[in-house]
Amino acid sequence: MNGLSVRLQQVARQIPAGATVLDVGCSDGQLLAHLRDSKGVDGRGIELDPERVARAVGRGLSVVQGDATHDLAAFPDQSVDYAILSETLQAMDAPRKVLAELVRIGRRAVVAFPNFGHWRVRADLVLKGRMPVTRTLPVSWYETENIHFCTIDDFRALADDMALRIEAQAFLSGEQPISAWPNLRADHALFILSR
Amino acid sequence: MSPSIAHQTLRLAHDLPLDSGQLLPRPTVAYETLGTLDADRSNAILICHALTGDQYVGTDHPLTGKPGWWTRMVGPGRPIDPARHFIICSNVIGGCMGSEGPASPHPEDGKPWGLRFPVVTIADMVRAQAGLIDALGIDTLLAVVGGSMGGMQALQWATSYPQRVRSVLAIATAARHSAQNIAFHEVGRQAIMADPKWKAGAYAPGNGPANGLAVARMAAHITYLSEEGLTAKFGRHLQQGTEKRFGFDADFQVESYLRHQGMSFVDRFDANAYLYITRALDYFDLAEGYGGKLADAFAATRARFCVISFDSDWLYPTAEARRIVQALVAAGRHASFVELASPFGHDAFLLDTPGLNDVIDGFLKAVEQNA
């Protein structure tokens, strides 16, 4: 419909019209452009890769080149309605620190990530004794940017440990929304958190 | 220096108050415009030039005959397009291409100002530009755009006139001059002042300290390039094959190149103007009036900002651009920042650098759509 993947559509659905948004790891700004054009969302982004930043700025988006570990510090407290971290939590050097920054900068944080507790992942480990290569995790362990995998239950435990409130959650198996047994059945998870 | 060229000029209707506390009596501002101001006066873009640039941004230079200094960015089908934009570029005050500067006649005795010319700052240059914009009947600028010293003026515009600037494009620039920046400028100034023909700035027109100015230009020119770029272009190549001449003529190609840069520069630039403009750069520190907090300098701004740096630029390195961007972010401004890859050092902003035109084009079009 809008060129967005199912997963990005799931993120986009969480953002109300007219909201202010910071998209951390915004790539070439596809989500921000969609939110701007369809919902009048006032967006900003941060992205590590200069070519993606250049494409995002070329789309008229306010995107700064930087990395989440160091460059989020400049953003003021509670300065946007939603701080989004989509598909990048597991690639962060310090996911806990980044999560703390998200709920500091955003009144709410939207975090979406691949679930390492999915049954296919478990099956690969248990039956083959190998690191999984799946739909959502298509790259071998030695090449992957994903250095901090977690399961849905791991993430919940972290949120609990950080005293964050889980305001909403949504799970996907492939393109299908699911709700039962997500830690086993969902290959993708989304949480909305606040302090 | 050829004073006989007729530049398009405007004499400001008022005396110009300067940061030093002095008053510059009704200065002349030389400028060029391209394109047409639209009916609601919303398509004006001010381009600010760098240290040795001038107002001839998009048309052939009357002195050198070379194309305008930024025709890669400005012109038909370019991001800044006279078919769409009303483009203004003015020579800075303190300069030597028709705007009031040390080579201009003093209003009282008609002789060159020389060192009687007051020291000006980047903010003073911007104040003079605002006078020009007023006279052109423009209230709000669609964009203020500049590289290097031009980028400093663009940032200054946003803080000096927050209501009048819709967007700022600051390229290969910094919000302050570093100790290293000042140090290189001081070498250039000392080269000029050590030339006996400088005569404490009171040299006759056409008989200035050409050797000193050429050396100043040579030293500065090195800072505009990168080691990688110099190596690629010249390496250790000799002027004459492989035969060393065992003397002090320009034996290496890079020496010959620098000498040429120096000598051709003196034909188009005034030595005193070089002193004044480098001084203006050295005094630049946008955070100075805000207790050193750059974010506070941007607190009242309303423009959208786009900051661009180049990975091989060591004159105004990416770290300085990042400092600007972090301050903008902290101030809650809409800011974009990208570091582009180029082997050509600081001069990359004037060259065909991949991504540069696309970023600027996209940024400007987005500002235009958010009317």
Short key terms for the protein model shown above:
heterodimer; A: 195 residues; alpha/beta; Rossmann fold; globular; B: alpha/beta; Rna Polymerase Sigma Factor, Chain: A; 2 domains; eight-stranded mixed β-sheet; two-stranded antiparallel sheet; 10 helices; 10 strands
In a nutshell, what does this entry contain?
The complex is a heterodimer of chains A (195) and B (371). Chain A has eight helices and eight strands. By secondary structure, chain A is an alpha/beta fold.
Q: What strand line-up does the widest sheet of chain B have? A: 1-4-6-5-7-8-9-10
Quaternary structure type: heterodimer
Helix content of chain B: 25-40%
Instruction: Tell me the fraction of residues in β-strands of chain A, as a range.
Output: 25-35%
Shape of chain A: globular
How does this model look, in words?
The complex is a heterodimer of chains A (195) and B (371). Chain A is of the alpha/beta class. The longest helix of chain A has 11 residues, at 95-105. Chain A has helices at residues 6-13, 30-39, 50-58, 68-71, 95-105, 119-128, 152-161, 182-185; strands at residues 20-24, 42-47, 62-65, 80-86, 106-114, 165-173, 176-178, 188-194. Chain A has a single domain, classed as Vaccinia Virus protein VP39 (Rossmann fold). The radius of gyration of chain A is 16 Å and the shape is globular. In chain A, strands 3-2-1-4-5-8-6-7 form an eight-stranded mixed β-sheet, with helices on both faces. In chain A, 34% of the residues lie in helices and 26% in strands. The model of chain A has no long low-confidence stretch (mean pLDDT 93). Chain A has eight helices and eight strands; from the N terminus they run H-E-H-E-H-E-H-E-H-E-H-H-E-E-H-E. Chain B is α/β, with parallel strands linked by helices. Chain B has two domains: 9-178 and 285-369, Alpha/Beta hydrolase fold, catalytic domain (Rossmann fold); 181-278, Rna Polymerase Sigma Factor, Chain: A, CATH 1.10.1740. Chain B contains ten helices and ten strands. Chain B has helices at 122-135, 149-160, 179-194, 210-224, 227-233, 253-266, 271-283, 294-297, 318-330, 356-369; strands at 9-11, 16-17, 23-24, 28-34, 44-48, 86-90, 143-147, 167-171, 304-310, 335-340. In chain B, the strands form two sheets. An eight-stranded mixed β-sheet of chain B has the order 1-4-6-5-7-8-9-10, with helices on both faces. Chain B starts with 8 loop residues before the first strand and ends with a helix. In chain B, 52% of the residues are buried. The mean pLDDT of chain B is 96. Chain A binds chain B through residues 44, 50-51, 53-54, 56-66, 71, 74-76, 79, and chain B through 304, 306, 322, 325-327, 329-330, 332, 334-341, 355, 358-359, 361-363, 365-367, 369.
